């Protein structure tokens, strides 16, 4: 199960933070700070997995953005790595060539996309097309 | 309407925040915005509610407090329109978590929305429920969610499936309600519904064994078919990732199959074919394919044994290990670690590759690989593996060294049957990374060296050679000092040469050079310097030609600021200068250290006592300490058991304090002293050992003995001669604690010594404190003169049964008016049939002395053949006046 998803830039600014386990606000800030510290200075040659407290972080870097998932120790790391990539592809498709600013100004939409992709820390939909179509339907209702 | 900024658009606020140059500026903007939003909330401004919430979410993400917006979420959720609800639920998920009470208020809205006619609103409610569901909500809303599992739109069904998953996680009791609808989902064709259904079933299997049984029986075949269809499905652009159709679904299916196959041969059997197909046919040049393979391997290793499949699985991991991608290697190592228990032989085949991974630049790979190597070490491969690791130690990262060193050390210790190999490896390890090792490691090494009598020469020569190149590591230097002191003579003559050695030429003065170097190197700490001084003393008699030079080195420390060094310098100097005739006997080689005792004590000593005593700071009154520091132990180990080498033992002591020996020999009881004084001498020569016992000796003797020991023949009163004695330079610590009380303190440790019985009038007849059919406990009670409140108790345990006791632990408790100090026991195993005993000293101080008598509750635990035993009792038969 995914414990939380963080999207941070190189400076450690959080662009998206989704927690599937209850945490205090202060604890969330601490987690965000620690995760950023963990991933930002890691050699790109190293694995994309870092142990974090009793869980592990699966992260991937896209330009200046770090996508980090915190998952259980027994989870399939490679699958989540692929999962991050699928999420990025969906974002890329949705914003047509996504950049950090898209995510900043449309952060609420990013959350909505994520909610169609992952729910309660579990994978909900694996088809990029289905998610984009669903987003289109929802946009129409606005 | 609010005058300043509630009408700025979200976009403008984000711009304004982004334009801030400093954190303070940003705080200003946010503060202003928050004030505006609050004002707008207070005004119950419906028009801007939507926008305010979006802004609050952004502000929340920046890390500012936004609790004042929580009620706004609820208002938005209860408004009728989809856009309001949408932002309301989004706000709810971000700003509120399941522990907040606000959530209680939202349950009703959720219930309504779950029953809403607009399926998009139902979707919103399910999404919110899935993300923040609490146990109460789970109970309240489970029926709605269960109903929605059969909803016509797949988008709702898949959300409902995950909500169900969350609900049964929160309230496992509800699991049985979901079993039937969940298994129905497994027959779905829609990938989204199928994958969520599979996840729900996996969770059900985890939570309830009945659900597991049910799903295993009804669905295994269907799942196998689904996986087969999926694996054989033609290209489908919608789900394609790197040429594989929906790897995520593959993985979730494999995971569910794993849950079903575990512990069930039939189910395992029915999935063998498809697992074999997935394992052999899946493309492994992309992450997606490898992810499936990895999951498949995990399933193969978990389900009931099928030899062929396991070989296939381990081979996949072997392939992973040689992959260039670090991620793949990492998961392979992780998996091999789990596989090692199932099939060590298969994993052994990849040993070489794993060993390469220990040298990887990525710390997480190194760590995993090292752990794996550690598991793989066995009799057959320990030598080459250790060699590789030790070689790598030299070039490894500083951060990694500690881990590596500890692991090598435990490998070497685990396979230490061959002494020469053990010594070799330990010396290498110490000289390269000794500072990472705990003290007990080199203590253990010294014990082994001492026991390997045919290797003394070899060891000391190896140390000498290694010392020429490396003196960085403190612990290495210490071992070198100890060995040079003990076996220095074997160094220069190439004594006990082994075939494998090259002869070396070392002169006596070379050996002294080494010790001098160790003594004078800046980084040497006190313990090392103390050891170096002792080594010099020992060498002074082994190398007569260097005696004068050694004395000169030693004498340099006579004014050292550290008392312990100063004391040693002066004492050793006087031994060398004035007592040549006896010094060779005095510095004889230490008797072989007893391995068993050392190991027992090491096991028994408290963890916090592991640190080395650092000279004078360890000014512990004997016996009052709970556990004896191991270093002290180590070098004193056999001191107690040493038979007096000769009657001249007594003379050493007297010599040492400058008394005419002849006087002693005329005294009755002088022979009797010899044993003890030898012990004392050994104590004296041991490192860091406080010289307390020396002072304590005279007190145990009659006053006549005290007289003899005082420099002038007895013309004074006994008491004054005591004072006299303590002012003799030897007992440097005595002046600080003169008087009778201090003397009694010093006695504590000696309660076991034979002279105890000579303490006039203060010894009581032994009592049998406790006796059961299997155990007898006797107390020998004594008091020290001058402190009537304190009773020394020597407890002796005797095993009356025919089974040996292990892990023997004695515990005692006393009422408040008593104070109890428990010394460590002499051991923790008690041989059968009374063939041996354990003794343990206690000190009881009675604050109500004369009014109340002693009483004690005891508890004894031990094991017979691994089975725990417990005995308890109360001791009330102490003599009355204690």
TrEMBL record, chain A:
Pfam families: Clat_adaptor_s. The keyword Transport applies. Keywords: Cell membrane, Coated pit, Endocytosis, Membrane, Protein transport, Transport. It is found in: Cell membrane; Membrane, Coated pit. GO terms for cellular component: bounding membrane of organelle; clathrin-coated pit; cytoplasmic vesicle; plasma membrane protein complex. This is AP complex subunit sigma. Belongs to the adaptor complexes small subunit family. It comes from the Eukaryota. Coiled coil: none annotated. Its main location: membrane. Residues 1-141 form the AP complex mu/sigma subunit domain.
Automatic annotation (TrEMBL), chain B:
It comes from the Eukaryota. This is Uncharacterized protein.
């Amino acid at each position: 199960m995914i414990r939380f998803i963080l999207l941070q830039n190189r400076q450690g600014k959080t662009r998206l933070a989704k927690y599937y386990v209850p945490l205090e606000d202060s604890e969330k800030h601490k987690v965000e700070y620690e995760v950023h510290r963990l991933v930002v200075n890691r050699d790109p040659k190293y694995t994309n997995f870092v142990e974090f407290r009793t869980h592990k972080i699966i992260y991937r870097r896209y330009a200046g953005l770090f996508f980090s998932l915190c998952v259980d120790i027994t989870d399939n790391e490679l699958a989540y790595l692929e999962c991050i990539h699928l999420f990025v592809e969906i974002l890329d498709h949705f914003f047509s060539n996504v950049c950090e600013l898209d995510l900043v100004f449309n952060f609420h939409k990013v959350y909505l996309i994520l909610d169609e992709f992952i729910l309660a820390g579990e994978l909900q939909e694996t088809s990029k097309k289905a998610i984009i179509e669903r987003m289109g339907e929802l946009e129409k209702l606005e | 309407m609010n005058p300043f900024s509630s009408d700025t658009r979200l976009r403008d606020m984000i711009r304004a925040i982004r334009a801030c140059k400093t954190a303070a500026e940003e705080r200003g903007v946010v503060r202003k915005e928050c004030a505006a939003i609050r004002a707008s909330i207070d005004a119950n401004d419906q028009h801007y509610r939507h926008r305010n919430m979006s802004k609050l979410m952004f502000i929340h993400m920046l890390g500012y407090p936004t609790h004042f917006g929580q009620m706004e979420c609820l208002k938005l959720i209860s408004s009728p329109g989809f856009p309001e609800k949408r932002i309301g639920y989004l706000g709810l998920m971000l700003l509120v978590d399941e522990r907040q009470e606000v959530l209680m208020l939202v349950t009703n809205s959720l219930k309504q929305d779950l029953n809403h006619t607009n399926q998009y609103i139902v979707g919103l409610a399910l999404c919110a429920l899935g993300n923040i569901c609490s146990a109460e909500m789970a109970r309240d809303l489970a029926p709605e969610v269960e109903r929605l599992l059969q909803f016509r739109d797949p988008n709702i069904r898949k959300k409902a499936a995950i909500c169900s998953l969350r609900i049964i996680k929160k309230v496992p009791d509800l699991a049985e309600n979901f079993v039937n609808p969940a298994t129905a989902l497994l027959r779905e064709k829609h990938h989204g519904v199928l994958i969520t259904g599979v996840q729900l079933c996996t969770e059900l299997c985890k939570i309830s064994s009945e659900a597991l049984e049910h799903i295993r029986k009804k669905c295994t075949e269907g799942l196998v078919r689904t996986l087969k269809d999926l694996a054989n499905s033609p290209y489908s652009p919608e789900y394609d990732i790197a040429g594989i159709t929906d790897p995520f679904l593959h993985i979730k299916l494999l995971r569910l199959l794993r849950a079903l196959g575990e512990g069930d041969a039939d189910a395992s059997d029915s999935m063998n074919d498809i697992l074999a197909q997935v394992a052999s046919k899946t493309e492994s040049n992309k992450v997606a394919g490898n992810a499936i393979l990895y999951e498949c391997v995990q399933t193969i290793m978990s389900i009931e044994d099928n030899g062929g499949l396991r070989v296939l699985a381990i081979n996949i991991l072997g392939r992973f290990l040689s992959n260039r991608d670090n991620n793949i290697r990492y998961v392979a190592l992780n998996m091999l670690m789990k596989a090692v228990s199932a099939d060590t032989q298969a994993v052994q085949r990849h040993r070489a590759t794993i060993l390469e991974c220990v040298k990887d630049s990525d710390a997480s790979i190194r760590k995993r690989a090292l752990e794996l190597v550690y598991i793989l070490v066995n009799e057959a491969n320990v030598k080459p593996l250790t060699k590789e690791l030790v070689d790598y130690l030299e070039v490894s990262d500083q951060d990694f060294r500690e881990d590596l060193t500890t692991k090598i050390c435990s490998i070497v210790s685990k396979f230490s049957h061959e002494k020469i190999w053990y010594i070799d490896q330990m010396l290498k390890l110490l000289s390269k990374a000794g500072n990472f090792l705990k003290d007990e490691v080199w203590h253990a090494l010294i014990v082994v060296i001492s026991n390997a009598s045919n290797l003394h020469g070899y060891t000391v020569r190896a140390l000498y050679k290694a010392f020429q190149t490396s003196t960085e590591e403190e612990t290495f230097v210490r071992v070198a000092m100890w060995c040079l002191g003990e076996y220095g003579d074997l160094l220069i003559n190439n004594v006990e040469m082994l075939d494998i050695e090259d002869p070396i030429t070392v002169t006596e003065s070379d050996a002294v050079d080494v010790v001098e170097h160790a003594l004078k190197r800046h980084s040497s700490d006190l313990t090392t310097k103390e050891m170096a001084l002792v080594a010099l003393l020992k060498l002074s008699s082994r190398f007569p030609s260097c005696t004068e030079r050694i004395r000169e080195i030693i004498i340099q420390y006579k004014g050292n600021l550290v008392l312990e060094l100063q004391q040693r310098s002066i004492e050793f100097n006087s031994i060398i200068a004035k007592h040549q005739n006896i010094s060779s006997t005095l510095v004889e080689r230490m008797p072989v250290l007893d391995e068993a005792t050392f190991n027992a004590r090491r096991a028994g000593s408290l963890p916090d006592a592991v640190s080395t005593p650092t000279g004078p700071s360890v000014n512990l009154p004997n016996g009052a300490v709970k556990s004896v520091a191991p270093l002290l132990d180590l070098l004193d180990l056999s001191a107690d058991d040493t038979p007096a080498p000769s009657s001249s033992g007594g003379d050493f002591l007297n010599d040492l304090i400058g008394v005419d020996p002849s006087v002693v020999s005329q005294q009755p009881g002088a022979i009797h002293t010899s044993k003890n004084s030898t012990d004392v001498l050994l104590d004296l020569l041991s490192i860091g050992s406080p010289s307390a016992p020396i002072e304590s000796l005279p007190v145990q003797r009659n006053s006549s003995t005290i007289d003899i020991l005082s420099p002038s023949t007895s013309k004074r009163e006994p008491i004054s001669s005591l004072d006299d004695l303590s002012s003799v330079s030897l007992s440097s610590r005595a002046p600080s604690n003169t008087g009778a009380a201090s003397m009694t303190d010093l006695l504590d440790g000696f309660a076991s010594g034979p002279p105890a019985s000579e303490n006039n009038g203060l010894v009581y007849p032994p009592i049998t404190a406790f006796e059961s059919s299997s155990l007898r406990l006797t107390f020998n009670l004594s008091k020290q003169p001058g402190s009537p409140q304190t009773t020394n108790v020597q407890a002796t345990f005797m095993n009356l049964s025919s089974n040996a006791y292990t892990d023997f632990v004695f515990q005692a408790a006393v009422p408040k008016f008593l104070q109890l100090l428990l010394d460590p026991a002499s051991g923790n195993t008690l041989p059968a049939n009374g063939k041996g005993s354990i003794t343990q000293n206690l000190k009881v101080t009675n604050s109500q002395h004369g009014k109340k008598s002693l009483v004690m509750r005891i508890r004894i635990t031990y094991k017979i053949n691994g089975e725990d035993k417990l005995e308890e009792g109360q001791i009330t038969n102490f003599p009355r006046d204690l």
